[in-house]
Design brief:
Blueprint lengths: L3 E4 L9 H16 L3 E4 L13 H12 L22 H13 L3 E4 L3 H13 L14 H4 L1 H9 L5 E4 L6 E6 L3 E6 L7 E3 L7 H11 L4 E5 L6 H11 L5 E5 L2 E2 L15 H7 L3 H9 L14 H7 L10 E2 L2 H14 L2 H14 L6 H11 L9 H4 L12 H7 L5 H12 L5 H15 L3 H13 L7 H8 L1 H14 L2
Parallel strand pairs: 1-2, 8-9, 10-11
Antiparallel strand pairs: 3-4, 4-7, 5-6
Helix pairs in contact: 1-11, 7-8, 10-12, 13-14, 17-18, 17-21, 18-20, 19-21
Bound molecules: glutamic acid.
Length: 481
C-alpha cells in the first residue's frame, strides 16, 4: 500500500508555525516513503471564512518548500480538494450513517441545549448530549420524527456513540489509546443548515482520498475517538494516526498568538531564511541525531521517522531560532546573500558596487543573525561617522594619543593596506611606542566606525579602503581638538 498523507488546514487567516510543522512532517513522511502528499482545504465552517486566507497559506507553504502532489491548484484524481465544493458527498454519507443506525436526528433548540448543559454542570458532570432525555428520534418516536421531518423542522444529525464500553485506537506516537465511550459526545455531524461539521467532512475525505496516515497536532486527539467510530460505522478501514506534540512557550504554556508571533509570514518578513524555518520547525518534536542541529530538507527526508516523534510538548525557543539563522547566514553562498541584500541596502539609501556589497555582507554576517540587520549594524560601511560613542571614547581616548594615532595612520597610509599588513604595522608600532596594540585597535575602531562593536577591525578597514579610512581617522582627530 503506498503512502498517502494530507495537510488539511482550515483557512482562518495565516499559516501558524504549528501548521508548518504538521505540513512539513506530512511532506517528509510522504517523500521518505515515496508516497503522495496532499493539500486539502477544510473550509466547512463558513462563519470562520477569511478572504484570501487560502492563498496566504499556500504562499507560505510554497515559500518554505513544502510541495504537494495533489492540491486545489494542481488537482488530482479525487475531485475537488476544497471541502466547500464537496458538500453533496458529506450529506450522502450522513444519510448512510442514519440508515446504518450510527447517527440520528435531533431537534433540540439552542435554549434546550443550554438548559441541558446547565443541569449537567450543576450536577458536576462534564456536559455532553444526553440522548436518553433530549428531543431526538429515539425519545420522540418514529411517527413524531417523521412528522417533524415532513414539516422540515430545524434539526441536526448526531453521531450515535455507544452508551457503554470503550473506544480504542492506535497512535504511532502515543501507542494504544483507550477512552470510555461515555466520555465521547454525540457529536453533531450535519448542522441545521445542512453543512457538515469538521468531523464528518474530515473522515469522508480521508477515506475517499485514500489517506493512509493521519498526521496532525495533538489538539485533534480528543476528536479521534469520534472519527474511529465513524470509520467503523461506515465499514471503512481506519487510517493510521500520529498526533504530534504541542508547541509550547518557554514557560511551558501553549504557544498562542497572544504571546508573540506564530504566523510563518511574520518570521519570513522579519528576515529568517526558509531553510532556518524548515530546519527549526522540523526539530520541534523530533531530532534525527543526538549531536547535530543543522539539516537540509533532503537530510530531513532521508531520516524522517514517525516512530521517533516525541510525546512531550516542544518548546519554541526564539534564541535557538536566531542562532540557527546565524548558522545559515554564515554558511550560505555569498553571492546569493548579496543578491538578497541589494534591495535592503537600497532601501536604506546605501549605494556601492556589487563587489563592495559582497565584501560588506561577507564581513558583517559574522556579527548578526539576520541579513536585514546589516544596514543598521553596519551603517558605517556606507557613511562616515560624525559621532563617536562617548562611553567608549572615555575608556580609550586621551589627548596624548593624538600623536601616536597620527603616526600610525601615516605608516598605514604608506602600506598596501591589506588586512594582514594593517595588523603587522599596528603591532610593530605598538612595540616601538610601548602602547598596547589593543588600545590602537580600539581607537581605530572608534575613529573609523564611531562604535564600540563591529566586525574584525583590520578587515573593516581593508574593505573601506585606504583613502576612506585615513580620512576618517583625520576627521576624528580634528573633532577632538
Ligand atoms: N481542518 C483541521 C485543521 O484546521 C484539520 C485537522 C486534521 O488534520 O484532521 O487543522
Amino acid at each position: 500500500m503506498s503512502v498517502r498523507v494530507r495537510f488539511a488546514p482550515s483557512p482562518t487567516g495565516y499559516l501558524h508555525v504549528g501548521g508548518l510543522r504538521t505540513a512539513l512532517y506530512n511532506y517528509l513522511f510522504a517523500r521518505h516513503h515515496g508516497g503522495k502528499c496532499i493539500l486539502r482545504i477544510e473550509d466547512t465552517d463558513r462563519t470562520r471564512f477569511v478572504e484570501g486566507a487560502t492563498e496566504n497559506l499556500i504562499s507560505s507553504l510554497r515559500w518554505a518548500g513544502v510541495e504537494f502532489d495533489e492540491s486545489p491548484e494542481k488537482g488530482g484524481d479525487y475531485g475537488s480538494y476544497i471541502q466547500s465544493e464537496r458538500f453533496e458527498l458529506y450529506r450522502k454519507y450522513a444519510q448512510e450513517l442514519l440508515d446504518r443506525d450510527a447517527a440520528y436526528y435531533a431537534f433540540d433548540t439552542a435554549e434546550e441545549l443550554d438548559a441541558m448543559r446547565e443541569r449537567m454542570q450543576n450536577a458536576g458532570i462534564a456536559p455532553r448530549y444526553d440522548r436518553t432525555v433530549m428531543r431526538n428520534q429515539y425519545t420522540l418516536g418514529e411517527v413524531e420524527t417523521k412528522r417533524l421531518l415532513a414539516e422540515d423542522a430545524q434539526r441536526v444529525i448526531r453521531l450515535k456513540v455507544p452508551l457503554a464500553g470503550e473506544v480504542r485506537f492506535d497512535d504511532i506516537v502515543r501507542g494504544t489509546i483507550t477512552v470510555p465511550a461515555r466520555d465521547v459526545d454525540d457529536q453533531i455531524l450535519l448542522k441545521s443548515d445542512n453543512f457538515p461539521t469538521y468531523h464528518l467532512a474530515n473522515i469522508v475525505d480521508d477515506h475517499l482520498m485514500a489517506i493512509t496516515h493521519v498526521i496532525r497536532g495533538e489538539e485533534w486527539l480528543p476528536s479521534t475517538p469520534k472519527h474511529v467510530l465513524l470509520y467503523d460505522a461506515l465499514g471503512w478501514e481506519r487510517p493510521k494516526f500520529a498526533h504530534l506534540p504541542l508547541l509550547l512557550n518557554p514557560d511551558k504554556s501553549k504557544l498562542s498568538k497572544r504571546q508573540g508571533d506564530v504566523a510563518v509570514e511574520d518570521y519570513r518578513e522579519k528576515g529568517y531564511f526558509k531553510e532556518t524555518m524548515v530546519n527549526f520547525v522540523a526539530l520541534l518534536g523530533w531530532n534525527p541525531s543526538a549531536d547535530r542541529e543543522i539539516f537540509s530538507m533532503q537530510e530531513l527526508i532521508d531520516s524522517f521517522k514517525l516512530e521517533k516523534v516525541n510525546k512531550a510538548g516542544a518548546v519554541f525557543d526564539i534564541q535557538k531560532l536566531d542562532w540557527m539563522n546565524g548558522e545559515y547566514l554564515r554558511s550560505k553562498p555569498l553571492d546569493e546573500l548579496t543578491e538578497q541584500f541589494l534591495p535592503m541596502a537600497q532601501h536604506a539609501g546605501f549605494t556601492a558596487s556589487k563587489e563592495y556589497m559582497c565584501d560588506v555582507v561577507g564581513l558583517l554576517r559574522e556579527r548578526v543573525t539576520k541579513l536585514n540587520e546589516i544596514p543598521a549594524f553596519g551603517t558605517y560601511m556606507f557613511t562616515a561617522p560624525t559621532e563617536f560613542e562617548e562611553e567608549y571614547k572615555a575608556k580609550f581616548w586621551t589627548p596624548a594619543m593624538a600623536e601616536p594615532i597620527q603616526e600610525l595612520a601615516k605608516r598605514l597610509e604608506a602600506s598596501d593596506f591589506a588586512a594582514d599588513t594593517i595588523n603587522a604595522v599596528a603591532k610593530d608600532y605598538a612595540k616601538e611606542s610601548g602602547i598596547k596594540v589593543g588600545v590602537f585597535m580600539n581607537l581605530l575602531r572608534l575613529a573609523v566606525t564611531g562604535k564600540s562593536v563591529g566586525a574584525s577591525m583590520i578587515h573593516t578597514m581593508e574593505i573601506l579602503g585606504k583613502q576612506e579610512s585615513i580620512n576618517r581617522i583625520a576627521y576624528f582627530l580634528k573633532a577632538q581638538e
